[in-house]
Design goal:
7-stranded antiparallel sheet, globular, Jelly Rolls, alpha+beta, binds manganese (II) ion, binds N-oxalylglycine
Length: 210
C-alpha cells in the first residue's frame, strides 16, 4: 500500500462534496481498501494495549474534564510519521480537504484526528462538534474500524437531521461518515462490544490574530 493521494476530481471525493452541498452529510460504506482498514484497526488496538489511549475529556482549555456520563471513549491523537497506515489515512484526508475546498470554498486549512475506543457499554451523548469559544472545526469525518459488526451490536452513530429525521450509521469497518460540524447534532449509542474509530475534523483558520 503506497501513495494514497487521490485526485480532487476522484468520483469518490466528488460524491462526498456533492452530498455535503445538498444535505450537509455523507456516508461512504466502503471508503477504504480493506487492508488499510485492518492495518488501522491493528494500530489502534496496539496503542490501546500499550496504554496509550486516555479517557476523552469534554470541553476545551481550562474547563476541560473527563465525564463518563457524557462520553466514555478513550482516545489518542494522530501525529504524522508514527505509522505507515496512519500516514496513508492522513494523505487521503488531505485529498478530501482539497476537494472540499475546491467544491465548497470552505477554506479548510488542516485536519486533526484521534483514534477512539469505546469499551462495551460506553456512549457519547448528543452534541455538536463545535466549541463555544472556537469555531474552527468545520467538517467532521469519522472512519470506522470494526470487523464483522452485526446489527445487534449497537454503537450506531445517530445523526439528527432537518425535519425531525434521524439517521443511524452502523460503525462497520471501512465506512466513512462526513458532516458539517456546526449543523448536525449527533450521538454514539452504547455498543455491546468494543467499538473502534478514527474521528477527525477539518478546520479553517481562526479569527485569533496569533
Ligand atoms: C465525536 C463523535 C462519532 C462516532 O467523537 O465527536 O461524535 O461515531 N464520534 O464515533
Ligand atoms: Mn461528535
Amino acid at each position: 500500500m503506497r501513495g494514497m493521494h487521490l485526485s480532487p476530481d476522484d468520483p469518490l471525493l466528488l460524491r462526498i462534496v456533492d452530498d455535503l452541498a445538498s444535505h450537509g452529510w455523507s456516508q461512504q460504506t466502503l471508503f477504504l481498501p480493506e487492508p488499510l482498514t485492518l492495518a488501522l484497526a491493528a494500530e489502534c488496538r496496539k496503542r490501546a494495549a500499550e496504554g496509550e489511549l486516555a479517557p476523552a475529556a469534554v470541553g476545551r482549555g481550562a474547563s476541560q474534564e473527563v465525564r463518563e456520563g457524557i462520553r466514555g471513549d478513550h482516545i489518542q491523537w494522530l501525529e504524522p510519521g508514527q505509522a505507515e497506515s496512519c500516514d496513508q489515512y492522513l494523505e487521503l484526508m488531505d485529498s478530501l480537504r482539497i476537494a472540499l475546498n475546491r467544491g465548497l470554498y470552505l477554506g479548510l486549512e488542516d485536519f486533526e484526528c484521534h483514534f477512539a475506543l469505546y469499551p462495551a457499554g460506553a456512549f457519547y451523548r448528543r452534541h455538536l462538534d463545535r466549541f463555544r469559544d472556537d469555531d474552527r472545526r468545520t467538517v467532521s469525518a469519522v472512519l470506522y474500524l470494526n470487523q464483522d459488526w452485526q446489527a445487534g451490536d449497537g454503537g450506531q452513530l445517530r445523526m439528527s437531521l432537518k425535519g425531525d429525521f434521524e439517521h443511524d450509521v452502523e460503525p462497520a469497518g471501512g465506512c466513512l461518515v462526513v458532516f458539517l460540524s456546526g449543523d448536525i447534532p449527533h450521538e454514539v449509542l452504547p455498543a455491546r462490544r468494543e467499538r473502534l474509530s478514527l474521528t477527525g475534523w477539518f478546520r479553517r483558520r481562526g479569527n485569533d490574530p496569533f
